[in-house]
Amino acid sequence: MIFFRSVIYFVAMVITVVLFGLLIALLGRLMPGDFSDVVATQWGRFNLWLQRVICGLRYEIHGLEYLPADGPCIIMAKHQSTWETIGLRGIFKPQQSWVLKRELMQLPIFGWALRFAKSIPIDRTAGRRAVIEVVKQGTARLAEGRYVIIFPEGTRTAPGQRRKYGMGGGILAERSGVPVIPVAHNAGVFWRRRGVKKYPGIIQLIIGPPIQSSGKKAADITQEVEDWIEARQLALPISVD
Question: How many domains are contained in the chain?
């Protein structure tokens, strides 16, 4: 039954990508203001609803009050599954800019929509040049009052595991002076890196207090973020009950 429901959701998700993506791709250039951001956020919220109805997959948020209502921030989040790329899009305010691999921009429809959502594409093999691009584009997006969202580990990591945290987010924070909001969760328990199944249950999404970046070095900021996230990860379940 879990597999059957997961396949139904996967098909529904693909349909939503096509419909919402085409809407952004066709009208994003013409519509003023935050049109593309709002449509993308509605896509995330609709998928969260589909996950609950079809798969029995829910979420609980802790620390929502730490997110700035108006001003910019850098969000550095644990990356375990596809869920957080949908969930954070639907939960946070519409004005978001995601640091993502450049290859995604080349995908039909989905990639077209990403172009109008003020994404920050990087070549992950470019090393220092990729960091420079994150700082350049990220600073511009922060100046617009947006959230810049980064997965510091760079790729999905299974529950109970960890990877080296990249310095891009820390350098952006040092250069901009904008606070960093750390985010921990256990989405990978219910939506794994590989495979189709989406297990029913409640994802715990924990938003931490702002980590101030003013006057700090990038390495220190990154270490603070890593320490906070990984400490919270240790308290989260790593398997389905």
Answer: 1
Residue 82 domain-assigned?
Answer: yes
Could you tell me the two tokens for 62?
Answer: 């802790």
pTM: 0.93
User: Does 208 fall in a domain?
Assistant: yes
The tens digit of pLDDT for each residue in 111-132 reads 888 888 899 998 877 778 888 9
Structure tokens belonging to residue 110: 């989905």
Residue (of 124, 86, 89, 90) closest to 105 by Cα position: 124
For a pLDDT cut of 90, what percent of the chain falls above it? 78
Q: Give yes or no for a contact between 215 and 73, defined as CB atoms under 8 angstroms apart.
A: no
Domain with 173, as residue range(s), is 2-234
Output phi, psi for 158, to 5 deg. -65, 150
Assign 3-state DSSP to the chain and report helix, strand, coil percentages, each to 5: 50, 15, 35
